[in-house]
Amino acid sequence: MGTALSVSAPRCAALVALAAVLAACGGGNGAANQTHSPVASTTPAHQSPTAQPTTTSGQPPPVTMPYGVLYSSQAAGTYTVSIIGIDGKVAASADVSTPPITSCASSAAAVVAPPLSMSNSRVYFMDAQGVVHFLGPSGDTGRAASVPAPSASQRAMFAVSPDDSRIAVVVDNFTASGASTRLYVEDVNGGGNHLDLFSESGSSSLWPIGWHGTNNLVLAVTPSCTQGGGPFCCGPQELHVVDPATATRRFTIGSKGGCVVAGPPSAGGVVCENRPDFTSGSVLNWTAGTVRTLAFNGPASSYLSPEGSMVMFVDNTGTGFTLGAGAISGFFACTWIDGTHVMSGGDSQHQPRVAEITTQAMVPVPAQGDCAGRLPGGL
């Protein structure tokens, strides 16, 4: 059974990026190697205790204003998910049990995704038993789905489609030599229309990092395990846009051996930086086209704005931007909320803040944690 949620929804309405996914879903643009593996049974979703309006299709409507999402430390027994408005206020929050730490046979750290995903209406987040809950900005919450339970050697990672209808799940079983990986897609509500799409074993693993629309699943290549550091050692390296019904690869975005993905993607695309010196890179769109080239002073986390017009660079001095905004020294943003507002994470020693990028006006956020992304969450 899942852990009970503790939810708060203040009346004042309003709201580190980790590794990414996919070790070769098939070759080139051809069909993927498809292996059908047994999958843990899902548990039917429970109705939200707080009703939210639904569309004629039965799905919740998209949010009408943007939000940022924070999730607190995974070192404690429970963690908190917080939805944050551009005014810095907490629109809603919920607590659940924290998934156990997963390792590669205790010999190295397993590279796993944050236990969250955003649709265009809700935040979805996993507890220690593998139950996936949802939370909306109005405080509506409930149980959405189940994935294979996390353990010291197994972790399920997931991405919910923008319309809340489908969930893509990658299940990794880690060993000292890497991980065995399998990918499946099914309905959020009840686990119907289940499709086993792909499996492999090796030193690389997959993450379902999001959906571009409802007919393009975005997966990212990431190492299975890590024992060290260095630029881009433990995060997304390249993205694969695949058919969610077959896992056939449609586009490869970036290259783990060349222009490596340098930050989380947005609806506008993603930024990559060229190995080995990381002094140049590109903004890439969702058909693998180069929108424009960029110059870098060295490795930096790079965040493309939702509409794709501006890039935010974060290094050890603070946050800078391409043309349109000045640098904000000492402010370490970790997500865009909309095209003019960004948010930093933090803890009890460094309070998260929301900043308006042109005026650099900031407001404190009465919550803690790392950035999980934004609502709406579709790519």
Summarize the structure.
With 379 residues, this protein is an all-beta fold.
Secondary structure elements and pairings:
Blueprint: E1 6-8, E2 67-71, E3 78-84, E4 90-97, E5 109-110, E6 116-118, E7 123-126, E8 131-135, E9 141-146, E10 154-160, E11 166-175, E12 178-187, E13 195-202, E14 204-211, E15 217-223, E16 225-226, E17 238-242, E18 249-253, E19 259-261, E20 270-274, E21 280-284, E22 290-295, E23 301-304, E24 311-315, E25 318-321, E26 328-329, E27 333-336, E28 341-344, E29 353-356, E30 362-364, E31 370-375
Antiparallel strand pairs: 1-4, 2-3, 2-31, 3-4, 5-16, 6-7, 7-8, 8-9, 10-11, 11-12, 12-13, 14-15, 15-17, 17-18, 19-20, 20-21, 21-22, 23-24, 24-25, 25-26, 27-28, 28-29, 29-30
What is the radius of gyration?
19 Å
Number of H- or I-type helical stretches? 0
Tell me the fraction of residues in β-strands, as a range: 35-45%
| Percent helix | under 10%
What global shape is seen? globular
User: Stretches where pLDDT falls below 50 for ≥5 residues?
Assistant: 1-52
Largest sheet: 5 strands, antiparallel
Total strand count, please? 31
Q: What is the average per-residue confidence, as pLDDT, rounded to a whole number?
A: 86
Distance between the termini: 32 Å
Strands of the largest sheet, in order across it?
A: 1-4-3-2-31
Class from secondary-structure proportions: mainly beta
Q: How does this structure look, described?
A:
With 379 residues, this protein is mainly beta. It has strands spanning 6-8, 67-71, 78-84, 90-97, 109-110, 116-118, 123-126, 131-135, 141-146, 154-160, 166-175, 178-187, 195-202, 204-211, 217-223, 225-226, 238-242, 249-253, 259-261, 270-274, 280-284, 290-295, 301-304, 311-315, 318-321, 328-329, 333-336, 341-344, 353-356, 362-364, 370-375. Strands 1-4-3-2-31 form a five-stranded antiparallel β-sheet, with no helix packed on it. A four-stranded antiparallel β-sheet has the order 6-7-8-9, with no helix packed on it. Strand 14 (204-211) and strand 15 (217-223) form a beta hairpin.
